[in-house]
Amino acid sequence: MKRTAFGVAAAGLLAASVPDPTLAADPRTIDWQAVPPKSVTLFYPGESTYDWLVSRAHKGARSVRQGKSCVSCHEVDEKDLGGILVKGDVVEPTPIPGKNGVLDVTVQAAHDAEYLYWRFQWKSHLAREGRMHDYVRFDGKQWKWYGHDRNDKAVRSGEQPPLYEDRFSIMLDDGKVARFAQQGCWLTCHDGMRDTRNEVVGDPVKKHPLLGADGLRHSDVRKYLASTRTDPAASWDKTRAKEEIAKLKAEGRFLDLMQWRAARSAPVGMADDGYVLEYRNFDAGKNPFSWNVERKTMTPLYMFDAAKVGFKALRAEDIGNADKPAAVVKEANAVPFDPKADWRAGDILPGRLLSRIDAKGSAADNDASYGTWKDGTYTLVWRRKLDTGNPADDKILKVGGKYTVGFAVHDDNVTTRFHHVSFPLTLGIGVDADITAVTLK
Ligand code: HEC
User: Fold this and answer.
1) Cα 251 from Cα 42, distance rounded (Å)
2) Does the C-beta of 70 come closer than 6 Å to ligand 1?
3) 109 Cβ neighbours under 8 A, 6+ residues apart
């Protein structure tokens, strides 16, 4: 059976929910052989947060403060930096044994009058696809979280298996975020975020007027831009007033951030759509993924439709089996959870519910992102409207325009900062740049 990122697409389950590949705008039908490839080296950044980069500990601090580009000193340095940091260093206190320091991505881009098209190829560290995420397992009495990311304590100690989704992320700017062209994603990375030295989680965040229970309702700190903070160190809690942040957003002073998620978006042929400003936000509307567990009671909401896929739950030995679905897709392979069904200890259900038809608005812009994994290599094709019609949380692109992009890959069941990232690159829509999106005839 031909393996595709839709898991069981070959069985026709999702056929109705993905666009017709004969459409002109389908990124799978483009003649990619005719589009020149560009090799981009991504490297492991450890905890090189912005505050660290402008601190005395970093030899280039003064230049970074002045806005100089990373590559003005670190040109073709990716292999060295990644190789050092991944093994453990002042900026990597908790290395992951056996992890690779660099990752090469082959990038191709094309455009027509309406869309930008991408193709990315990279090798995965593991000989399996990372398409499992937030799984829950029945232990004979109750459902409990099963597996976690590689940095998780229980995974490091061997108590839980490493299960987490692989991802490909694109950060995009149109020149409105000062220094992004020079310093890329490091602008968004600060101490206090998840898995950094002084990680802030729980009550301190919940009590924060803007980020917490009375505001955005977060309980941890994620990417943000220094422009949304009031102190020189851009501390997580020194946020500007809500109105000032709204003004920055209205002026387009945010970064577009889109993530293809092997578990949470790929099974429905999508990528998510977000933006970075005072937090890593999702665009307005509805994501293709939501929770499949009532988290207070740990009760699943949907299970696999046995009539369609032959079973109502997975077992541990099914994980990594390309012929079995890894995601519950509401409109394709799911039925409401039946608590009275004969659940056996060891039954496993995805803790996330996917739906292409429920995804709505600006959050659903990346509606044709198809990744396949074969013999250790991911191939991901992706389209995005040049003008999504949602300037409030997207960058609007124009033919002839030049932009800045940064890429990240989360590989081998990692999350947060345990990824590989690129220095920023220019993207030209039909014009010469580091990456030129060629004009399709
Ligand atoms: C003015 C030159 C300069 C600039 C600009 C600069 N750096 Fe550096 N950086 C250095 C030097 C020098 C070192 C130390 C290298 C060494 O000791 O081999 C270094 C080290 C590093 C390290 C390795 C730290 C370690 O512990 O091994 C990282 C990561 C790094 N820089 C990231 C960046 C990033 C990201 C930027 C852009 C935001 C940047 N640098 C900009 C000069 C610079």
Assistant:
1) 31
2) yes
3) 35, 116, 117, 118, 119, 427, 435, 436, 437, 438
Q: Is pLDDT above 90 for 235? A: yes
DSSP state string for 318-348:
GTT-TTS--SEEHHHHEEE--TTS---TT-E
- Using DSSP, state whether 62 is helix, strand or coil: helix
The CA distance from 325 to 3, in Å, is 11
The C-alpha atoms of residue 184 and residue 164 are separated, in whole angstroms, by: 26
**Nearest-CA neighbor of 172 among 240, 99, 256?**
256
Reported pTM: 0.94
Rounded Cα–Cα distance for residues 113 and 116 (Å)? 9
Q: 97-140: per-residue pLDDT in tens?
A: 999 999 999 999 999 999 999 999 999 999 999 999 999 999 99
Burial of 63 (0-12, 13-18, 19+ CB in 10 A): middle
pLDDT at residue 12 above 70? no
The CA distance from 72 to 340, in Å, is 63
Kindly give the number of the ligand 1 atom that is closest to the alpha carbon of 92.
26
Q: Which two tokens stand for residue 98?
A: 């056996």
Using CA atoms of 353, 318, 20, 38 in order, give the dihedral in degrees to the nearest 10. 100
- Give residue 25's pLDDT: 87
> From edge to edge, which strands make up the β-sheet containing 143-146?
143-146, 135-138, 348-350
CB 164, CB 130: distance < 8 Å: yes
Largest CA distance in the chain: 64
Using CA positions, which residue lies closest to atom 35 of ligand 1?
A: 70
Angle at 63 between CA 60 and CA 64, to 5 degrees: 80
Among residues 336, 273, 327, 372, the alpha carbon closest in space to that of 14 is found at 327
Percentage of the chain surpassing pLDDT 90? 93
Give the Å distance between the CA of 408 and the centre of ligand 1: 19
- Report how far ligand 1's centroid is from the alpha carbon of 65 (Å): 12
Domain locations in the chain as residue ranges: 39-131+166-284+374-439
> Closest Cα to residue 70, out of 438, 431, 423, 321?
423
Distance 60 CA to ligand 1 centre (A): 5
